[in-house]
Amino acid sequence: MSDTARKLVIIGSGPAGWTAAIYAARAQLDPIVYVGVPKQNPSIVLPGGQLMLTTEVENYPGFPEGITGPDMMQAFQKQAERFGTKVIGEDITEVDFDKDGGVHTLKTSAGKTVKAHAVVIATGATANWLGLENEMRLAMSGGGVSACAVCDGALPMFRDQPLAVIGGGDSAMEEATYLTKFASKVYVIHRRDELRASKIMQERYMKQPNAEVLWNKQVVDVLGDEKITGVELEDTVTGEKSTLDVKGLFVAIGHTPATEFLRETGLEFDDKGYIVLKSRSSATEIPGVFAAGDVADARYRQAVTAAGMGCQAALDAEHWLGEQGRI
Ligand code: NAP
């Protein structure tokens, strides 16, 4: 056992990471949370996670009037810090997990090394893109293509303009509904003839006077030099091509877990890259390494479930450290 090693390092600062920190700090595990460094489009990763990109959170129990995502994350952080959590604004870029459950070694984006007896991975997930060349080019250059309507939708360039959202899930409905407040028209472009989104989210969008769903359509190209001028569509049933003039495109086609930096560590992943947990626990394949929140949950992906998983991870880590005689 190394004296210089921390008892617990938490990677990630969404609801899972902060909840793990609250529990761990109260259990006197002296946790450090690596909150990450803000990244730019098109790969939006923020300290605070996806809730930083959410306006109103209406389904987190205890907030009958709702609360904004950023306010909620600020409150989580404050609560974690109140019990002594240390917060560091760096990414963990490399990990060397001891498969025998010894001390784990982590490297940060500032070139530092931190050692830990237990680690909670709570790095969440990031937005997916179609992968079209012009989509990426215009997303990188601020040309009107984005994966986050809540972050970018209120920009002047989108005001009173026709916009499009790609996707048929709750995210697409949420983004599209938000955009109807600013845009002249908001098209939802969906590849099938039925939405995946919950009924309430569908209805909220559909009842807006400037909403229109384009069914059975996929975007095959994004048009425009410096700014987007439109998209080329292909009908998924007939194969027919058409053009739609829009001044903004918001991609809302799901997420990918932030696990790339963990691939060679001996952890187990599912086919989408989510960490596989031992049943009904936050334990991974590696002793002393736990995971919580969206990074290990392709199914529920809610703030409240992520927070619950963060609690489990802290309790599991505390139990494990105790069993090992390390606390
Ligand atoms: P999702 O439910 O996985 O939906 C992704 C959508 O994108 C699907 O409609 C899918 O089409 C479409 N899609 C995927 N790849 C595509 C591609 N290459 N080209 C075109 N379309 C593509 O993801 P999500 O909407 O981000 O939601 C994720 C989870 O978060 C869900 O559990 C959701 O309920 C939850 N969520 C909740 C709220 C809320 O309650 N406030 C808000 C946002 C998200 P198909 O339908 O054809 O597969």
Description:
This protein is of the alpha/beta class and 327 residues long. The protein folds into two domains: 6-126 and 255-323, FAD/NAD(P)-binding domain, CATH 3.50.50.60; 129-251, FAD/NAD(P)-binding domain, CATH 3.50.50. It has seven helices and 19 strands. It has helices at residues 15-26, 69-82, 133-140, 149-152, 170-179, 199-206, 303-323; strands at residues 6-11, 32-34, 56-57, 67-68, 86-88, 92-96, 104-108, 113-121, 125-127, 145-146, 162-166, 185-189, 211-214, 217-223, 230-235, 241-245, 248-251, 255-257, 289-291. Strands 1, 2, 5, 6, 7, 8 and 19 form a seven-stranded mixed beta sheet that branches. The chain has a five-stranded parallel beta sheet with strand order 10-17-11-12-13. The longest helix has 21 residues, at 303-323. It is elongated and about 65 Å long. The termini are close together. Bound molecules: NADP nicotinamide-adenine-dinucleotide phosphate.
Largest sheet: 7 strands, mixed
H/E topology pattern: EHEEEHEEEEEHEHEHEHEEEEEEEH
How many domains? The number is: 2
Structural class comes to alpha/beta
Shape: elongated
Number of helices: 7
